[in-house]
Amino acid sequence: MTQIIWIVAAVFITFSVGYVGYSKYLSQFVDLDDERDTPAHKYEDGQEYVPSKKPVLLGHHFSSIAGGAPIVGPITAGAIWGWAPALAWIAIGNPLMGAVHDFVSLSGSMRHEGKSIGYIIGEYVGERGKNLLLWFAFLTIILVVAVFALVVGIVLNAFPSAATASFVYIALAVAFGVYLYQLDAPFIPGTIVFVAGVFGGVWFGINNPVALFPAIEAGTYPEGTIILLGFLGDGAWLPGAVMESSAILTPNVAGWIPVILIYAAVASALPVWTLLQPRDYLSSFLLYAGVGGALVAIIVGTVFSTSAEPLVVDSSIAAFEGFLGVESRAPFPLFPMLFVTIACGTISGFHSLVSSGTTAKQLNQESDARLIGYGGMLGEGLLASVALSTLAVAGFASDAAGGGIGGALPNFASGGGVILTSLGIPAAYGAPFMALVLVSFLLTSTDTAARLGRYMMEEIIGTPGSGTDTGLSGDFTSFARGRYTNPIIQCGIGYVLVISGEWATLWTLFGGANQLLAALALLTATVWLANWDDSKQLVSTGIPMALMVSITVLGLSWVAFKEQLYDQLIMGGASGLGAQISASVRIVLALVLIYLALSLVKIGYENISTVRGGGGQPAAEPSDD
């Protein structure tokens, strides 16, 4: 049987070559120079533009980009098509496409005052192109907020100990922010003390699990779980709640979702030093321990194991299940759906919003972009390989063979617990720890997404990066972009989407929109490079852009015409008027995303053709201000 170590070995080899060789070339290609002042220094305001130490910013960036998608995507893809296609796309696509995407998005934003990719493309193709991209990004952000809030609720329901530990580390993060930025206390001693506190919170959570509402079936929660809102009944009255143990939106999950959305709204409105930076830095140690510990455990469990079959791929997981996937699922073609399903484990448009949103405003020096941009995406690829390994070890339950959120999340925690036993950690502790790792990723991504959505709206309305308008007074535009009010809009829409019960469709639309946004970010980088200098090659960004446009347009077309129009409307899969309206809305949304993307590609292509075809001069040099 195949040993798990070959999954991580393949990724290590391609990632090492990519970072040592390709990222060094790209750093020279975009002319990283530490003699230039970064936007964080030029526009330092203590609110959004804050120069940050490299390890602190790496922790924030990695925590923000590594949400639930690089875990759910590879596990779902592995269950449908087998582990080999998923591994190949992660190992090859990540260093050649995903890491390039993140790096050029960060570098381009750094040269344009820390502004978003929408602002950058607007500099070269005009206001219409900018607004098209920003609206596309804003719609994607709402899907991100909705999906991640749902996934956090599912994990906290499955592992109540992770809820307690999350409360502890958020409180520690606020204290660490005060310690670091207000008291100006020593960095390293503080790191040691507060990181120890985070891991102490894991132990505390395992011994004091909490839930909001009682479990539908006895024995679902660990013994001694504290029910916080039990005095309000069983939670059946919550919007979207389903009183079935097999349902996704059980009362406890439905109760956690608004809590997470309120947290995201509040956290996104606070200055970055208050919670975002210190929390992401502290949680990064938890994340590094989870990903790094799993990788070490795989090596130890293979090289030093006395078992005849140490950490091997479970017999329920095949290397390749065929082009149309497992029989238990309706035909699901490997091309293009594999690439849309894995999404963030290889390339993610959401990362371009993080890179050109919060991260570019905090870079201390230009050379930091190589480790944080290119290296951060490789770190997410390692997370994807760990997720695939947890699936391979734990196997997939027969009732979850079709993949999806409900099947993927338990596998990551339970499979991770099995892997960590190679280090002598009992599965009873390892599984809740891996659940907390997942929650840590998701919480940081959720409130970072809400903050980025506010940035998008500020640029659409015309006050980019102000961060001073609270939105509590003034006209509707003030409310739409306000620091306190804009997150309410995003989280409110996200809540309505989640409680509709269409979580599976949300995930598919999120994957397609996210990948298409990555193509548009690569288009933005290609336009920037074309306008910068005639000698700049456009292959590194142009080829990945063309591939992602083709893949994601086909993927969203499959969702719109096959899964919704044919299966739901024509063949009668959508029973009832409400389901038919829902399917129609999903078709319209998919087609709108395709239209916005193709319109932008046309505008960008015309600009590049004009500049490189001799019809005009480069529009701008790389900005230093």
Automatic annotation (TrEMBL):
<feature type="transmembrane region" description="Helical">
    <location>
        <begin position="132"/>
        <end position="156"/>
    </location>
</feature>
<protein>
    <submittedName>
        <fullName>Carbon starvation protein</fullName>
    </submittedName>
</protein>
<feature type="transmembrane region" description="Helical">
    <location>
        <begin position="330"/>
        <end position="350"/>
    </location>
</feature>
<keyword id="KW-0812">Transmembrane</keyword>
<keyword id="KW-0472">Membrane</keyword>
<feature type="transmembrane region" description="Helical">
    <location>
        <begin position="253"/>
        <end position="273"/>
    </location>
</feature>
<feature type="domain" description="CstA N-terminal">
    <location>
        <begin position="407"/>
        <end position="553"/>
    </location>
</feature>
<keyword id="KW-1133">Transmembrane helix</keyword>
<feature type="transmembrane region" description="Helical">
    <location>
        <begin position="371"/>
        <end position="397"/>
    </location>
</feature>
<dbReference type="Pfam" id="PF02554">
    <property type="entry name" value="CstA"/>
</dbReference>
<dbReference type="InterPro" id="IPR003706">
    <property type="entry name" value="CstA_N"/>
</dbReference>
<feature type="transmembrane region" description="Helical">
    <location>
        <begin position="187"/>
        <end position="206"/>
    </location>
</feature>
<feature type="transmembrane region" description="Helical">
    <location>
        <begin position="162"/>
        <end position="180"/>
    </location>
</feature>
<dbReference type="GO" id="GO:0005886">
    <property type="term" value="C:plasma membrane"/>
</dbReference>
<dbReference type="InterPro" id="IPR051605">
    <property type="entry name" value="CstA"/>
</dbReference>
<feature type="transmembrane region" description="Helical">
    <location>
        <begin position="285"/>
        <end position="304"/>
    </location>
</feature>
<feature type="transmembrane region" description="Helical">
    <location>
        <begin position="488"/>
        <end position="506"/>
    </location>
</feature>
<feature type="transmembrane region" description="Helical">
    <location>
        <begin position="417"/>
        <end position="444"/>
    </location>
</feature>
<keyword id="KW-1003">Cell membrane</keyword>
<feature type="transmembrane region" description="Helical">
    <location>
        <begin position="6"/>
        <end position="22"/>
    </location>
</feature>
<feature type="transmembrane region" description="Helical">
    <location>
        <begin position="512"/>
        <end position="530"/>
    </location>
</feature>
<feature type="transmembrane region" description="Helical">
    <location>
        <begin position="542"/>
        <end position="561"/>
    </location>
</feature>
<dbReference type="GO" id="GO:0009267">
    <property type="term" value="P:cellular response to starvation"/>
</dbReference>
<feature type="domain" description="CstA N-terminal">
    <location>
        <begin position="5"/>
        <end position="391"/>
    </location>
</feature>
<feature type="transmembrane region" description="Helical">
    <location>
        <begin position="581"/>
        <end position="601"/>
    </location>
</feature>
